[in-house]
Write a structure and sequence with these properties.
By secondary structure, the protein is α/β, with parallel strands linked by helices. The protein folds into 2 domains: 184 residues, Glycogen Phosphorylase B (Rossmann fold); 137 residues, Glycogen Phosphorylase B (Rossmann fold), CATH 3.40.50.2000. Helices cover 46% and strands 15% of the residues. It has 16 helices and 13 strands. Helix 1 packs across helix 16, helix 4 packs parallel to helix 5 and helix 10 packs parallel to helix 15. The two termini are 22 Å apart. The structure holds uridine-diphosphate-N-acetylglucosamine and uridine-5'-diphosphate.
């Protein structure tokens, strides 16, 4: 079959949140057909399927079902399956998003087949090459032919690395999504009542970075910190966290309410009403900034320095229980005046650029 459309390559939870506004803009602006390949990196319903349902993302056209457990196996398996898919169809371009292994695998498979690759959320740098995501970002940016930067800092990074001519500032697709999502969540979600929570009566926490959850001593220290907070903590547990709590026999304190991963609408409503968010997620720190809930980030550094500069995000570099309690109790008032992540139209800007570049294009050239 000759599809002659662009192909989104997605696989992990944050990818789904990020393509939703782009898919919506494609539907509204028309002119460019698209298909979706799901790599299978995340597969539980609460890590994958629910996002397609809640965010009106069309069901994937292709399921690659990559099951590799190590980085190389996961990336390699996705590449092999994508290569076969791209050889069986004609895609005008591949679009990859963010910094997960599915992103790098998509960019590598596409660029080696000389199919142009567009990277959404390009130019972010943590300057910590021990993070697999940093390797994925750098490699993906350098082999992609169209780069969409979510912030001016990201644009500056791309310029410094000689990639300016392929780059454009789009703003951040997660900002688009939260503006739309909150309105829906406020109408539809009953999560506060379900969990018996009062607005500003609880902390919301997530953890999934390998350096926080795969290391038993570090994980025990973080859970000890959260257990000392005076209010309830809703800990929406990523599968990686749940597996490691069990593996190390760590029992959270009685103030911690462990939940399954939550759907996006419930989760962002919890973000909006929390006293503070404590997380090591990339996307959640930024969502906290968008909706005005102070954030404590359990990481040595962040790609989203604008949130720190605004006083809205405190980095806890050395993640001891004492440091976590101190940061969670800090009463510094954030300054939310600046809007460093665009105007909430990133999806439309990206689609306009994709149309300008790929509409009515039949040949595969970089
Ligand atoms: C991945 C990304 C990380 C991103 C995170 C978002 C890479 C290198 N890491 O990390 O950048 O912040 O997703 O959540 O791409 N698992 C399940 N069910 C699922 C999904 C995963 O049980 O639906 C298990 C896997 O089997 C594995 C573990 O969780 O044991 C980790 O999954 P993996 O995708 O490898 O890495 P994440 O930690 O999720
Ligand atoms: N999220 C969600 N339910 C949860 C935890 C997170 O819907 O239980 C959403 C969150 O609102 C954000 C995205 O998932 O949009 C962030 O994904 P994650 O933290 O897994 O990845 P990261 O951003 O660190 O790559």
């Amino acid at each position: 079959m000759d599809t002659n459309s662009i192909l989104f390559v997605v696989g992990a939870r944050p990818n789904f949140v990020k393509i939703a506004p782009v898919c919506q803009a494609l539907r509204e602006q028309g002119g460019l057909s698209y298909q979706i390949a799901h790599t299978g990196q995340h597969y539980d319903r609460m890590m994958s399927g629910i996002f397609f349902e809640e965010l009106a993302i069309p069901a994937p056209d292709f399921h690659l079902r990559a099951e590799g457990k190590t980085h190389a196996r996961q990336t390699g398996e996705i590449m092999m399956k994508l290569e076969a898919l791209c050889q069986a169809h004609t895609f005008t371009a591949l679009v990859v998003i963010g910094d997960v292994n599915s992103t790098l695998a998509g960019a590598l498979a596409g660029s080696k087949l000389q199919i142009p690759v567009a990277h959404i959320e390009a130019g972010l740098r943590s300057f910590n090459r021990c993070m697999p995501e940093e390797i994925n970002r750098i490699a993906t940016d350098h082999i992609s032919s169209l780069l969409f930067a979510p912030s001016h800092t990201a644009m500056a990074n791309l310029k410094r690395e000689g990639l300016e001519s392929r780059s454009c500032f789009s703003g951040d697709v997660m900002y688009d999504m939260i503006l739309k999502g909150l309105k829906i969540a406020e109408r539809q979600s009953s999560i506060l009542a379900e969990l018996r929570l009062e607005p500003r009566g609880y902390y919301l926490a997530t953890l999934h970075r390998p350096y926080n959850v795969d290391d038993g001593r570090q994980l025990r220290e973080i859970i000890a910190g959260l257990s000392r907070l005076e209010e309830k903590v809703i800990l929406a547990a990523h599968p990686r966290l749940r597996k490691n709590l069990k593996r190390f026999g760590i029992v959270p304190g009685s103030n911690i309410q462990l939940s399954e991963p939550l759907g996006y609408l419930d989760f962002i409503l919890l973000e909006k009403n929390a006293i503070k968010i404590v997380t090591d997620s990339g996307g959640i720190q930024k969502e906290a900034f968008f909706i005005g809930t102070p954030c404590v980030t359990l990481r040595p550094e962040t790609e989203w320095m604008e949130t720190v500069a605004a006083g809205a995000n405190i980095l806890v570099k050395c993640r001891t229980a004492d440091a976590i309690v101190r940061a969670a109790s800090c009463e510094k008032v954030p300054q939310y005046g600046n809007k460093p992540y665009g105007n909430g139209r990133a999806g439309e800007i990206i689609v306009e650029a994709l149309q300008a570049r790929f509409c009515c294009r039949n040949t595969q050239t970089t």
